[in-house]
Amino acid sequence: MSQTETTATLKLKDDSQEPSLDQTVERIIRSQKNLLIGSSKSDRVALGPDPEGFKILPKNTRKRFEEGGVDISKGYPYRPEQDKIPIYLDEALAIRNDDYPYIERGKNADPEKKALLDAATEVIDLTKHIGTEIVGLQLAELNEKQKDELALLIAERGVVFFRKQKLSPKQQLELGEYYGRVEEHPQQIQVPGFPGITTIWADYYKKLLNSNITFKNLSYGGWDAQRHFSFQTFHTDLVHEKQPAGITHLHLDEIPDVGGDTAWSSGYAAYDKLSEEFKKFLDDKKAVFVSAHKYLDRNDPFAGPKRIERVHPLVRTHPATGWKSLFVNRAMTTRILGVSPVESDIILNYLFDVYEKNADIQVRFKWGPSEPGYGVSALWDNRISQHTIIYDHEGTVPRHGTRVTSLAELPYFDPESPSQREALGLPLDE
Ligand SMILES: O=C(O)CCC(=O)C(=O)O
Ligand SMILES: [Fe+2]
Fold first, then answer.
1. Whose CA is nearest to atom 3 of ligand 1?
2. pLDDT along the chain (430 residues), means of 10
3. The pTM is what?
4. ipTM of the complex
5. Do residues 380 and 229 lie in contact, with contact meaning Cβ atoms separated by under 8 Å?
6. What domain of life does the native source organism fall in (predicted)?
7. Is 308 helix (H, G, I), strand (E, B) or coil?
C-alpha cells in the first residue's frame, strides 16, 4: 500500500464519523444526565432567557433593571445553557481550583469604623450577638474607607442591613468584586449579562414547578429528603469551594408585605455556647463539607451521583476580627475527621442544634414594608454565620432579589485566636 493509499483509507475512516464506543457512552451519559444524577423536579435544564418568567417580573424589579441598563428584552431570568453545566466531578472541581489571592478588606479598617458609622444617621444593633442596621447611607455611594469598615462591621456583627437603597445590579456586582472574587454559578438562574449575579425568586420557581413546561437541570437548592437542604433550612453558602464564601449580599427589590423574612445565627456565639473543655476538643478538628449539587464520577459514571467534598477546619479564625467561629452547617457538613462515624454524627448533630436552636444568638429580619423605587440589602459573612429564609409566604406572593457572593480565604484555624467572648472580655460559660 502506498503512502497515499494509507492516508486515503485513514481519511475515509475519519469521514465516516462513526463514533467510538467511548463517544457513544459519553453521549448516553449526557443525554441521560437527569436520570443518572437523579435530578429532582427542581433540577431542570433551562436554556437562555425565559420569556415566561419575564411575564411575572415584579414592577419594582423591572424598573430597577431598566434604570440599571439590564437587557431583559429577550426574557428573564437567564438560565445557564446545558453545555455550561458540569456533569462530572472533575469538571465541577476544576472551576475556581486555583489559589486566588484574597484581600481581606476588613483587616486594615479603622477598628472604630468612624468613616462609616459617623456618616450614618442611625446605627441599630438588632440583637446583642448578631445583626446591625445602618440608616441614612447608600451602599452605592460608599468610599473605599467606608467599604473596608463595612467589611469589618459585617465580620463583627455577622450581618448588616441597609433599607431604602437605590442600587443597580452593576453597582451591587462592583461592591461584591471589591470584597473578593465573585462566584459565578454554573447552575443557578441569573441576571442576563451578569453571570456573577444570581436571582432569588421563590414565586418564579413555584410557578415553574407547577407548570408543565419541561426544563431540565435548572437547580434551586434541592437536596434529597435526608439532609433537607434548601434555602429553607439553616445553611452557609458555597462551603464546598476551595476558598468558600465570605460576604454574600442579597438585595431584595420586591418584598412581600407579610412573610419571607430571613434569619441568621452567629457562629462566634455558637462556639461560645460550648464548654471550654469541649472547645479544646473541637479546636483542631477538620470536617468534610459537600456541595449542594451532584455530579458523576468520570471513571465510574453509573455508580450513582456524588457531591464535591472539601475538608475545612471545624473551628475557623476570621481574618479580620481574629475570633474563632464554629464552622458547620446541617446541610453540608457530613463528618468530622479523626473520630468514628457514630461519634461524628452525634457531635455534629449537637453542633447543628447549638446553631439552630438558640434564639438568643439569632436575628430574624423583616425586609418590608416595601417602598416603591427602593430595595433593601443584607450583607452577611458566611464564615461566621448561618442563615435561612423563613418560607411562610410559600412562594405565593412576589419576592425577588439579586445576590452576589464574594469568595474569601482558604479557611484556617489559628490556635492563638480568642473566642468572641474572650476578645470582648465577657465571662465564659463553663
Ligand atoms: O431568600 C433568602 O432570604 C435567603 C436565600 C439564601 O439562602 C441565599 O441567598 O443564600
Ligand atoms: Fe443561602
1. 389
2. 43 63 80 67 61 92 96 91 78 86 96 98 98 98 98 98 98 98 87 94 78 39 39 82 95 96 98 97 96 86 88 98 96 95 97 96 96 96 95 87 97 98 87
3. 0.90
4. 0.99
5. no
6. Eukaryota
7. strand
